[in-house]
TrEMBL record:
SMART domains: PINc (SM00670). The keyword rRNA-binding does not apply. One of its GO terms (cellular component) is cytosol. This is PhoH family protein. Keywords: ATP-binding, Nucleotide-binding. The lineage of its organism: Bacteria, Pseudomonadati, Pseudomonadota, Hydrogenophilia, Hydrogenophilia incertae sedis. Pfam families: PhoH (PF02562), PIN_4 (PF13638). InterPro entries: P-loop_NTPase, PhoH, PhoH2-like, PIN-like_dom_sf, PIN_dom. Residues 18-152 form the PIN domain. The keyword Nucleotide-binding applies. In the N-terminal section; belongs to the PINc/VapC protein family. Belongs to the PhoH family. It comes from the Bacteria.
Length: 473
């Protein structure tokens, strides 16, 4: 009996599958993007590989990502039988990616308008997209790039172009968890029928039942502004039952933190998180002048110098460009970071003047004591460190990528509290957006964890001039 020969395998690309052409900046932004296109196919031009090779050297985040992308490609190509037929993207174990990877194996001579220089890598990629569109008229060929100008050029040539969306936590940052919820006027009528209340450790607890309880998030703040304002924090959620805990009023002088009192509702909520030893991770988001740094430093000093809960305060921030060397200038790590820490100096001046009875000598002694307990660190030397019983402040956190944010937060050892501060509308890092910022990422991922809390600060409290300028300019 003669054995029937198997039919030759012919790679048939379904027209319904899109063909995504990747720009280099997408691979350098997120090396795992190769596995994020589900059932669709990916095409990588030779110019992209050349640019990837040119950017692989160095210790920056971009160089590390370029090297990782090259490793993924090497792993897939080394197991490929026939590169021209496409390499299955799920060959390395990524089950969600069922499409194929195509590499440019032949020279492409698509004609670009004479105004575009042929030697530029961006224009070579555009020529590849144009050639593929002509080669596969029934397929959707789409250029994926983080470069806005590249996408504009592509659309001007009649080519489809998109941003890389898979790393975005939220499409619309207006949907970002604010950590604060206003209760409807009829809340107690609908949820207070079988209410239980008790007191413990100086706080009042309420067990309420009703339809709204299911949407509550643990450590979310709820309030009602009526004749007698009600402010509370959600401590527990179970189905349509929730436990609310009243707050400490930090707007009253008797509860001042290092001489600072809360000037508005959100600042009061923020101080309740910052002063709570059960909360290990706090994120504060707000415009300039909302008091993020001042409240955090006041809480850190009170718990470090007065309560002895933490041994010292460590403050770090992104020195844009991110992750680059802070220079061969003379001086210590702290001295090199000083130019980036103007906000720290300004806030320390405010905190040092809160004790009016101390006099000039007393304030000078306090200033020296404060500076001995505050350490300024560069992000570049954070890998491999473990902070034990420290109050870690990450300023300008909106400029961190999700990966950098993970690197920093995982430095926390026992007894350490991490506070991330930032304004997601002021991002300086290239290719990061409000939706893909590391700050947006952690706010979304930590939502509902019993040992974390978040507040979006709304009102500016810097000065009437700053408030008015923010409105009219």
């Amino acid at each position: 009996m003669t054995q029937r020969k198997p039919a030759p395998v012919v790679t048939r690309l379904r027209p319904s599958n899109k063909l995504f052409v990747l720009d280099t900046n997408v691979l350098m932004h997120d090396p795992t993007c190769l596995f994020r296109f589900e059932e669709h196919d990916i095409y990588i031009p030779m110019a992209t590989l050349e640019e990837l090779d040119n950017n692989k050297k160095g210790m920056s985040e971009v160089a590390r990502n370029a090297r990782q992308a090259s490793r993924y490609l090497d792993e897939m190509v080394s197991h490929a039988q026939n590169i021209e037929d496409g390499i299955p993207l799920d060959a390395t174990g990524a089950r969600d990616a069922t499409g194929r990877l195509f590499l440019q194996t032949n020279a492409i001579g698509a004609e670009l308008p004479p105004t575009l220089a042929s030697g530029k890598a961006d224009n070579q990629i555009l020529a590849v997209v144009m050639h593929l569109q002509q080669l596969h008229p029934k397929r959707q060929v789409i250029l994926v790039s983080k470069d806005i100008n590249m996408r504009i050029k592509a659309r001007a040539l009649g080519l489809a172009a998109e941003d890389y969306f898979s790393d975005k936590v939220l499409e619309d940052t207006d949907l970002l968890f604010s950590g604060v919820r206003e209760l409807p006027a009829d809340f107690w009528d609908k949820h207070g029928r079988e209410m239980e209340s008790w007191q413990q450790s100086g706080f009042t607890f309420y067990r309420v039942r009703g339809p709204l309880c299911a949407s509550f998030v643990v450590n979310e703040f709820v309030y009602q502004e009526q004749d007698k304002p009600f402010y509370a924090m959600v401590k527990e959620v179970s189905g349509k039952t929730a436990i609310l805990q009243t707050l400490r009023d930090y707007s009253h002088a008797r509860n001042s933190v290092w001489g600072i009192t809360a000037r508005n509702r959100e600042q009061n909520f923020a101080l309740n998180l910052l002063m709570n030893p059960e909360i290990d991770f706090v994120t504060l988001v707000g415009q300039a002048g909302t008091g993020k740094t001042l409240l955090t430093l006041a809480a850190g000093l009170a718990q470090t110098l007065d309560d002895k809960r933490y041994t010292e305060i460590i403050m770090t921030r992104v020195t844009v460009p991110v992750g680059e060397d802070i220079g061969f200038l003379p001086g210590t790590e702290e001295e090199k970071m000083t130019p980036w820490m103007g906000a720290l100096e300004d806030n320390l001046d405010v905190l040092n003047k809160t004790d009016e009875d101390a006099g000039d000598w007393g304030r000078a002694a306090t200033r020296d004591l404060i500076r001995s307990r505050i350490k300024i660190k560069s992000l570049n030397f954070m890998r491999g460190r473990t902070f034990i019983n420290k109050f870690l402040i990450i300023d300008e956190a909106q400029n961190l990528t999700p990966k950098q944010m993970k690197t920093l937060i995982t430095r926390a050892g026992p007894g350490t509290k991490v506070v991330c501060l930032g304004n997601i509308s002021q991002i300086d890092t290239p290719y990061l957006t409000e939706g893909s910022s590391g700050l947006t990422y952690v706010v979304d991922r930590f939502k509902g964890w019993p040992h974390s809390g978040h507040v979006t600060l709304q009102r500016g409290e810097r000065s009437r001039l700053a408030d008015y300028a923010g409105e009219v300019l």
